[in-house]
Design brief:
single chain; 5 strands
Length: about 230
């Protein structure tokens, strides 16, 4: 089997792709980029070689990034915020039967681990914003908006057991932050309050303590086996 290049893997073997970023969150304005995220299934025979297929591919289009299926599942099981949100985008661009089965497993990836990963990521971003304020007097307002959005999303996930990435009625309030219309001390207060609400939601969360790793692994094994059989038939 000829080894396909990274662009060919994305072009010919994508099982799921979606639009992410502001357009998926319901926060798009004039000039917003279109961020594409996807999952490709590298043919199984490629893993039998010393040189393995890439775990991810940046491109080929601008603002496009894709993960190989196994890497994507690993990150989702660890409650990686970017990957979990990718599974819940309302803007699906491309999907095949493997991709549909992947989406059917969305609940298997969700667990209380999301509290740690979402809040930890948010605190890391907050530290960067505070550094901006110390150096420049103001934060990067767009980043502040997205930090608040992430904390709202994770709080509601912990409360309901469902991950919804569209901001809905919070759109105008969040866009006011992006425009710099909300004083930084008030933004800080909102961040602190949302972290406290995330903490409070954890103990009573309907989410399981851990994701359903076995269910996801069964899917991955079946998918790899089917890919190998197709290669043999070819």
């Amino acid at each position: 089997m000829k080894t396909p290049g990274p662009e060919a893997l994305v072009r010919d073997h994508t099982v799921y792709s979606c639009v992410m970023g502001s357009r998926a969150f319901g926060l798009a304005t004039d000039g917003s980029d279109t961020d594409l995220r996807g999952v490709f299934l590298a043919p199984t025979p490629l893993f039998w070689r010393f040189d393995k297929p890439p775990t991810h591919v940046d491109g080929p289009a601008d603002e496009q990034f894709s993960w190989e299926l196994e890497r994507f599942c690993e990150l989702a099981l660890r409650a990686n915020p970017n990957v979990l949100e990718c599974l819940h985008s309302p803007l699906v661009e491309r999907i095949d039967p493997v991709g549909r089965e992947l989406l059917s497993l969305r609940e298997a990836f969700l667990s209380r681990l999301a509290h740690r990963t979402f809040v930890r990521y948010a605190w890391g971003q907050r530290a960067k914003l505070e550094a901006d304020v110390r150096q420049y007097g103001v934060p990067r307002w767009k980043h502040a908006m997205h930090l608040l959005r992430l904390l709202i999303s994770s709080r509601d996930l912990l409360r309901t057991g469902e991950l919804v990435i569209e901001v809905g009625p919070a759109r105008e309030e969040l866009l006011a932050v992006k425009r710099g219309e909300v004083p930084w001390p008030e933004v800080e207060r909102r961040m602190t309050r949302l972290v406290e609400e995330n903490d409070a939601a954890l103990n009573a969360s309907p989410l399981p303590a851990h994701p359903d790793r076995r269910r996801v692994e069964d899917f991955l094994i079946r998918t790899r086996r089917a890919s190998a059989l197709r290669s043999d038939e070819g």
